[in-house]
Amino acid sequence: MFELQDAFARKFHYLRLSVTDVCNFRCQYCLPDGYKPDGRKSFLTLDEIRRLTRAFAAMGTNKVRITGGEPSLRKDFTAIIETVAATPGIRKVATTTNGYRMARQVADWRRAGLSAINVSVDSLDSRMFHQITGENRFQEVMAGIDAAFAAGFEQVKVNTVLMRGLNDGELGRFLAWIKDNPIQLRFIELMQTGEMDELFSRHHVRGALIKEQLLHAGWQQKVRAHSDGPAEVFWHPDYVGEIGLIMPYAKDFCASCNRLRVSSVGKLHLCLFGEQGVELRDLLAEDGHQAALQLRLRQALADKKATHFLHQGQTGMTPHLASIGG
User: Fold this and answer.
1) Per-residue burial over 245-259, b = 16 or more CB atoms within 10 Å of its CB, e = otherwise
2) Is the per-residue pLDDT at 52 higher than 50?
3) For the purposes of burial, counting CB atoms within 10 Å of the CB of 89, is it exposed (0-12), middle (13-18) or buried (19 or more)?
4) Which helix (H) or strand (E) holds 314?
5) The pTM is what?
6) What's the Rg (C-alpha) of the chain?
7) Contact 68, 119 (CB under 8 A)
8) DSSP string, 240-262
């Protein structure tokens, strides 16, 4: 088996697969003006997703995260989960959602084979949640998290984008929430993408500051598993929940990179930043192209760089994180 490996000996066991770039929220750091439909786009079909996942799995991928936009807006989202979960070699199927449909549908997702779930909750104050996301749906999202536990998920990961002057004063409130709840709270450092320069300069908070506070308060860092995402995870003996920090500006952030991205229109992105993407869709039309698809994936990896260039202010071709499932 030819594994997905780049010139720096990094192996890629983790695929982030976007199935739509449509989103019904208007988060300040992603789609502040709301989603703008592009009638020329057609998103990956269920058969194309099956062929793509099979090719990645044959090259060592064992974890797939289904992302968007908001992936649950696809009417066939449950069928997508089932298709990915049924792929030989895939051991973990995760999704990242804004929680909009969780209360009604998360039990179906679980039965279809979903094994992990991340929910975006940028504030525990309903008014601030509304301000950041553009949607007054805080209670619905929280009900969805409760429904996930009721459906059998042992842990729910919660994503919170840190923003100075908005939610950066809520650390104590978040810690109280996870004291007795099996939630891994993941603070994500605001990233400079596309046209977000002003937002970044106004609201960026260094994740390293939160790390210092956690270590000072007795939190301890966990060892990272090979299929884990980019978060540094911390635990505390007095807490049921955990804290994760995603700090793209930290030294050696890219050294442990283990994930590749495919956009909702079938382009391979070797990094969240910096390139146009490698076209895969022409090889997804029928079952007979798997060998050619695997060859293209191997050839593309030869061009993967050692690191992103965020420190130099290069944010690549990504206008917003929803476009390739950031």
Assistant:
1) bbbbbbeebbeebbb
2) yes
3) middle
4) none
5) 0.89
6) 19
7) no
8) SSEEEEE-TTSTTGGGG--EEEE
